Amino acid sequence: MRFISLVFFIFVFANAQTPYQKGKLTYMSKGCYSCHGNNLEGLHRYPKLSNRAKGFLSYKLKRFRDKISDNQQQEMMIAFAVDLSDEEIDNLTTYMQDYVQDNLSEKYNDSYVPEGDGGS
Ligand code: HEC
Fold it and tell me: What is the reported pTM?
């Protein structure tokens, strides 16, 4: 299993090229998805990040990196932003702004035809 994950990661890292892809990798590897969602859709008090202005998002991330927060809720972002480099923030915010959901077709498979399966 470890070997398979290793091969998987090497494969993923070796293929990361565009800022969008690099941003996606950082988003997944830093655990951002656990609060902001796999599809950047947000959840409850965790803001949605998809298709929002890059300038605003990087302004916020740099503030969190400088340990500035406006309220207690935002405090939890600091731990995740402190070690981000300028380049990582650039890639992350490109990923967020340009985000396109690419797994819809896998999620909703409506090809199943119920007729004639004998299960009445
Ligand atoms: C533990 C949960 C958690 C994790 C993990 C997390 N965030 Fe956040 N994030 C928050 C909360 C809470 C806020 C602030 C919400 C508010 O302003 O009330 C926030 C705010 C933000 C904002 C500003 C959005 C806005 O509308 O102000 C950005 C951008 C952001 N997070 C990006 C990230 C990135 C990138 C990562 C991964 C490196 C990450 N977050 C990981 C909880 C989390």
Answer: 0.80
Best residue among 46, 82, 85 to mutate for probing ligand 1's pocket (most ligand atoms within 8 Å of CB) is 46
Answer for the pair 3, 74: CB distance below 8 angstroms, yes or no.
no
Closest CA to 61 of 74, 45, 51: 74
CA–CA distances in Å: residue 99 to residues 16, 57, 58: 16, 13, 15
Domains of the chain, start order: 14-100 (1.10.760.10)
Name the DSSP letter for residue 47. P
Residue ID of nearest Cα to ligand 1 atom 13: 74
* Interval 41-74: pLDDT, tens: 999 899 999 999 999 999 999 999 999 999 999 9
